[in-house]
Structure formats: C-alpha cells, structure tokens
Design a protein that fits this description.
mainly beta, 9-stranded antiparallel beta sheet, 7% helix
C-alpha cells in the first residue's frame, strides 16, 4: 500500500481529560512524518516457560518535516519568546507545549483510493535546528524538521484515524479537530510583548494579524472582545496591570480570542 500525506496542522491542547483544543495552526506543506511507538513490556516465567508477556504502548517518537512554519507556531509549539511583531528569541528551559497533530494521508487498497484523517492526540516538539549555507553549484533548500514526543491521554488514547472517500472529507475532519474552518479561517491575532512580561506605562502593546485585510478588535478590562469592541488602529499603552484580549475579524468570520497578561 502506497501512502501520500498533506495538510499538517497543530492545535494547542487545553484540557487532556476532554481532549479539548484551541485554535489550530496550519504548518506549511507536508514533507514527511515518522511516528514510532514506544512500549513498556515485561515477561513472567514459571516452570522454565514463558507464562505471560505484556507489551503496552506508552507514547512515541515523532519527527515532522514541513516546507515552512508560520510565526505563531514558534510561540505556540516551542515557547519561543516574541517581544515584538518582527522578532523571536529562543530561551532556555521553555514551558513544554502540548498539542494535537493532524494531517491527511492518501492510500490505495485493492485498486481503490481512500483518504485518512490522522490525529495524534498529545504531542510536544522542540524547535527545528538552523541550517544555513552559502550559495554554491547546487541549490539547497533548508526546511523545518521537528522532533518530538507523543504521549497518552488519561483515557490511554494515542492517535485516531478516520477513512473517507474524498480528500475534502478527510481535510474537513482534521480542520474540525484543530478548530480551523477552511475557507473562512481567520487566524488568532498576535499580541506583543510576550505573555506575562513586566512592562512600563510607556511600553507599546502591538497587535497584529496574519489574515489579509482582517481588522482587530480588543479589550483591556478583562471582558471578551466582540465585533463591537474597540478597533485596533495603533499600538496601545496600559496605565495598570491588565489582560489584553483581541480577535481578528474578516467579513462575517471571527477568530478565536488571543489574550496576554501584562504587569506594570
């Protein structure tokens, strides 16, 4: 059976008991993935014979290669600090970020093509290493390749697969699991400086969206932003410690809420 794959996504795991996820991120274009299960096993011997052997999956090792990674993936997946809208800082001992990993695979069995929605419930990744070369006779493409782990949910689930007749059905399933609405997807806005930063009253708070032509609505009083909230038009300043919450709006489509707490 030959397998092809595409459309990788990752969504932050909010509650592993209920398998609840936040708004997902589209991770460029799929290149390769390896998911090798790890096991705990043991054997019981009696009367010089093997009486029982137990082998239970405990998780797995995951390697994912994509063509590119969006800016938000570095913060959501790896804990990379983003002080402003155009810079990233890799720090030591970042908080482990867990999330669901999904993609669509294409297979052919007995002459019939089928599409599978794949979902790994709990994964964590380390940021890809930099690979930088100068131009030479051969052009080399340096693409992100991430290594990580898969882990068991409390209900002992590791991954899940759903087979469909069409690619669109499988993709819709993956996007649904990752809380991405294809065609009407509006990404969560980014709020800078980084979450939990201690700032002064003169520090500008910047909110940006990667969705073209989307407007940003925000609040600073802890309430949930709506399409009627204050329109973001320029960097803002805070007079006291506050939680900034923001949404991106494009037509009738609204993103999930982004929020960051700032201490003055």
């Amino acid at each position: 059976m030959q397998i092809e794959a595409s459309s990788p996504v990752w969504a932050p795991l909010l509650d592993e008991k209920t398998a609840k996820y936040g708004q997902g991120i589209i991770l460029g274009e799929f290149m390769n993935l390896t998911h090798n299960y790890t096991y705990a096993e043991g054997s019981l011997y009696g009367d010089n014979r093997l009486v029982e052997h137990v082998k239970e999956p405990t998780g797995g090792d995951v390697t994912l290669g994509t063509t590119w990674l969006p800016f938000r993936a570095y913060e959501a997946m790896f804990g990379v600090v983003s002080p402003t809208a155009n810079e990233r800082i890799t720090v030591g001992n970042p908080e482990t970020r867990y999330g669901g990993l999904g993609f669509v695979s294409k297979g052919k069995r007995e002459g019939k093509v089928f599409y599978t929605a794949n979902w790994i419930y709990k994964t964590s990744f380390t940021a890809p290493n930099d690979a930088i070369t100068t131009k030479s006779g051969n052009i080399q493409f340096n693409t992100p390749s991430m290594s990580g782990k898969s882990a068991l949910l409390p209900n002992l689930k590791i991954d899940h697969k759903w087979d469909y007749k069409t690619f669109e059905e499988a993709l819709n399933k993956v996007y649904s699991l990752a809380n991405i609405n294809d065609g009407t997807f509006v990404g969560q806005p980014y709020i800078f400086p980084d979450n939990g930063a201690a700032i002064s009253a003169t520090t500008p708070i910047t909110i940006v969206s990667n969705t073209p032509d989307a407007e940003i609505r925000y609040t600073t009083d802890g309430t949930e932003p709506t399409t009627a909230s204050t329109l973001y038009e320029a960097p803002i300043n805070l007079n006291s410690s506050s939680t900034v919450k923001a949404i991106a709006v494009s037509g009738d489509n609204v993103s999930s809420i982004s929020y960051k707490k700032f201490i003055i």
